[in-house]
């Protein structure tokens, strides 16, 4: 039997999913939680074979709950089941350690099959999610390194090119020195350079600095 834990803040969703999964000959629902915090506690206590995780919940959302579960129990198999297809939900959830990503609009049988596949070590992405990921990967392949910089990172890169120190950048942008350092590290990583000097050379080479 595949032991499943349900984590969703909508009671009716839990009732419906639990009833369907319990009707499957190879599945049993071992617990339910109405938020991420309770879900983390139950996951670590019950150690289910598969966790079905909603995303938007209070006081802890599904992404944070996934991070906490995976940090304490790296072998956990988590399936995100949500209504959201936004990039700011999909990619953070997968980066947090979720094995699969399904939508609540998926058929019940598709969710059940995703549970079986995830239980056996496979990753399942709902068709729309897989399509978005492929599109993003193709776009990333055609981007120049600096085109992946955020607006704030580009702003800081130009200030670096002007010869300003981290402290001067922090004061000019009204952000903390720690925040500047985080941005600088991200800039160097995205540009594929080792230090600030190489970043400045990159900026001039690609005509980012006039």
UniProtKB/TrEMBL annotation:
All residue ranges annotated as the HTH luxR-type domain in the record: 142-207
UniProt-listed Pfam families: GerE, Response_reg
InterPro entries: CheY-like_superfamily (IPR011006), NreC/VraR/RcsB-like_REC (IPR058245), Sig_transdc_resp-reg_C-effctor (IPR016032), Sig_transdc_resp-reg_receiver (IPR001789), Tscrpt_reg_LuxR_C (IPR000792), WalR-like (IPR039420)
Sites of 4-aspartylphosphate modification: 54
SUPFAM superfamilies from the UniProt entry: C-terminal effector domain of the bipartite response regulators (SSF46894), CheY-like (SSF52172)
CDD domains reported for this sequence: LuxR_C_like, REC_NarL-like
Domain Response regulatory span(s) in chain numbering: 3-119
UniProt cross-references to SMART domains, sorted A to Z: HTH_LUXR, REC
Record key words, sorted: DNA-binding, Phosphoprotein, Transcription, Transcription regulation
Protein's name in the database: Response regulator transcription factor
């Amino acid at each position: 039997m595949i032991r499943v834990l349900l984590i969703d803040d909508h009671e009716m969703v839990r009732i419906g999913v639990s009833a369907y999964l319990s009707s499957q000959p190879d599945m049993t629902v071992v617990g339910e939680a109405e938020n991420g915090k309770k879900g983390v506690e139950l996951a670590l206590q019950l150690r289910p074979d598969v966790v079905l995780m909603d995303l938007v919940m209070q006081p802890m959302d599904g992404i944070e709950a996934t991070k906490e579960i995976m940090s304490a129990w790296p072998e956990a198999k988590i399936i995100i089941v949500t209504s959201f297809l936004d990039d700011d939900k999909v990619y953070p959830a997968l980066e947090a350690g979720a094995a699969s990503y399904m939508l609540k609009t998926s058929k019940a049988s598709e969710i059940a099959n995703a549970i079986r596949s995830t239980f056996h070590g496979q990753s399942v992405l709902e068709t729309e999610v897989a399509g978005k990921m492929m599109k993003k990967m193709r776009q990333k392949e055609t981007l120049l390194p600096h085109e992946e910089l955020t607006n704030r990172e580009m702003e800081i890169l130009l200030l670096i090119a002007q010869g300003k120190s981290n402290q001067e950048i922090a004061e000019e942008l009204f952000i903390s020195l720690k925040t500047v350092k985080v941005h600088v590290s991200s800039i160097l990583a995205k540009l594929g350079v080792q230090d600030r000097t190489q970043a400045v050379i990159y900026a001039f080479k690609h005509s980012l600095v006039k």
